[in-house]
Every structure is written in structure tokens, then in C-alpha cells.
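Annotators were shown the component list below and the corresponding predicted structure, then asked to write short factual statements about the assembly.
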Amino acid sequence: MNAAIVTVGDELLVGDTENTNATWLCARLADRGVTVRRVSVVPDDVGEIAQVVNEHHAAYDAVIVTGGLGPTHDDVTMEAVAAAFGRTVEANEEAATWLASHGYSGEDLDEGTTHLPSGCRPLPNEAGVAPGAVVESAYVLPGVPAEMRAMFERIADEFEGTRTHTVVVEVAEPESALLDRFETLRDRFDVRVGSYPGERVRVKLSATEATEAERAAEWLRDRSDAVV
Amino acid sequence: MNAAIVTVGDELLVGDTENTNATWLCARLADRGVTVRRVSVVPDDVGEIAQVVNEHHAAYDAVIVTGGLGPTHDDVTMEAVAAAFGRTVEANEEAATWLASHGYSGEDLDEGTTHLPSGCRPLPNEAGVAPGAVVESAYVLPGVPAEMRAMFERIADEFEGTRTHTVVVEVAEPESALLDRFETLRDRFDVRVGSYPGERVRVKLSATEATEAERAAEWLRDRSDAVV
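Structure shown to annotators:
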């Protein structure tokens, strides 16, 4: 299973806000064995959001969209996702019922709070108000991190890929000195090799079998100035 | 002037690394009045990088690509950018000369360090080794933050848009209560209104004229429970 993440918001594109939602979602999906192939950050613009959701829907198994839910002028994500799937936005009864049963009467809510793409599956917001939605394989979540995380955990089971096991070896040699060994690792073992230079080089060895990752790590430790 | 940013790296897509390069570039470009319309995070894959660079080059005035420079197996950005522009990668004499005059002899360097897209303008790396490159309106910078920042500052003057002036008003009211006032602000003043909910709502008012942003802020302060 692969996926794309679309994070919506002008505040991200002017550098006001670090895109921690994308990083968190990438890590959670990786935990579940899902390969994230693309993250796109787009402005609060119906046309651009719709275009990107449409393109990513065609290219990947799932698309997770975060941000731009809510009552303000620049919250246009639901409208854009509806447009991407040729749907309209309409009052969603299930979402209204959930909110009513959780203490929100109609008068408390801003107009449009329960307006979601037609035919969607609404997602309750346990840490806020604005509901999310699932349209085909697109998941629309809020941008407020606590709300986004709580909503993702409700649906996490719907994301399931081939889990990998990773072993990290830290090596006190320059990355360039390790290149031949990386090539040999790839030849001899069924592993993915990632290398992250820093004070030391962190070498991440990932395999679908834990024993294979461990065998590769042992091979590297025996042949390098490994610290861990 | 508008721009897109492409950050390359599997480590970003598994959530191992926060994408601080994108945030930093967005902020620096906003400072210079350049509108960033898109950030794309892509894997270390020649085909995907080439496709995104090609699409963004067609859609935006400038594309800044960071990450995936260097001697390891998964550093394929230069090859991908060359492919996006129908060019090959070849030894770049100017880059080799710059490195030689800064104390790097040929033997010190990994093979391919000075291999850049044909006909490009090489960019010296003052904080590292691997050079960057400019191909048409695409700027290729390293992924190591200190190297990326130093290289960007060398070319920052090439990015110039309409600078805006921003005034922030902090309001101790719920965002939903402010919606009518936001609409009036947009009607009466030549401003962009951004609102960032938190403990208080931060309202950012941006205009090309500083006096216009200040007038709008004064109007809002007079009519709300403004703290700042």
C-alpha cells in the first residue's frame, strides 16, 4: 500500500508553521508498513487543492488531506475535495447527529460545520468540532495537530502495508568511505540501506524479515568502525 | 514572482526528519516578496524527481530543489534535474576549478562530485563540498541545512517579488466570532487576512503598503478584544 499526504495552508507556505502534521503522518504510516510516496503542501485555494487531490488519488492507493477545515473564509478543503471527486458539498446528517449527541446543539455551530462532500463517510472529531470525511480513498482530517492525530488513530487500521524491521548501525567513518560496503549490503542481503550523515553516519537497514535486517547489521558491524 | 520548492529524500517520507529546509526557504522567499505556491516532498527516485521538477518548472517562475546531492547511491538529484530538462550529467570544469582553488584536489573528491547537468551554472558550496547548480529557472541546493542556507544566500538576490508588510493583532475571542469582521476587513482595506487559532487568535494583516496594514489593524483593534 502506498499513500500521498496533502497539507493545506498558506501559513505553511510562508514559513510561519513547521509542517509537523506531515512528519507525524509519515512516521505513523511507516509504522504500519505503508509507503508514503509524496507530500504536497498547497495554498488555501479550491482549484489547487482539488487538482492535487485528484492527481494523487489517481497515482496512489490513499490520499490523506489535512488542514483547512472550519468556519473561516480560507477553510476551503471540503469544497475542494468534493470538487476533486465531482461531488457537491451538502449538510451531512450523520455528522450533525454525532455533534448533537456530544453536546453541540445546532445554534452553537457555525454555519457549514457539517457541510461535507456528498456521499462521504464522516469522521467524528474527538478533540475539536469540525468533522473529517472519507471520500473514496481520500481521507480529510483537521489541521490542528491534536485533532488530526485523534482522528487518524480512529482510522489507522485502514492503513496496512508490509511492515519492515529496521536496525540502525552508527559508524564513525565518513559516509563516502562506506559506499562500497553499502553496495555489497544491497547485493548480499534483502535490505534497504539508508544513510544519514551527522557527527557519525547512521545507517538504517530495513527488511521485511527482522532476522535479515539483523544479519545485514552484523555484517556491517564486523567490517566497520561501528559504535552501535 | 512565484516559486515551488522540491525537497528530496526518503528520510522525510518516513518521518525520520522534520522538513526544516522547506520551512526555512518558504520564510526567506516570503521575506523577499516571493509567493511559494507549492512544496513537494519526493523520494530518492530519478523518475519521480524529474517528473515533479518538470511539472513545477512549467507552472511556476522558479523551482528550488534541495537534497540528494553527494556521492551515495541514493543521491540522484542532479541526474533527475538534468533529465527534467533533457540534458545529460557531465564533469563541470568551473565547479572543479572552484574546488581545486579551495583546497580539494581531484583525489580527495569522490567520483561524480563535480558531475552536473550540462550547460548549468554551478553554485559553490561554502559550507561543504558538493556543488549546487542552476538549470534555467531551477536551483539545485544541498540537503544539509547549513550548506543549503549558505548557498541560498549567495543567490538570494535572484528572488525578488512584491514585498508585503504584515501587522499581527492578537484577539481574545473565538475565531468563529471574528468571521464578519474578517469579511469587512477584506472589503474595506487592501489587505490579506490570515487567522491562526491558538490560546488566542493571531490575525495577520498583510498589505503592499505598510500604512494600509496598520490602518486595517487599527480598525480591528478598535472593534475587538485585542491584546496586541
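Statements collected:
1. The helical segments of chain B are 10-13, 20-31, 46-59, 77-84, 93-101, 145-155, 179-188, 210-222.
2. The CA atoms of residues 126 and 150 of chain B lie 7 Å apart.
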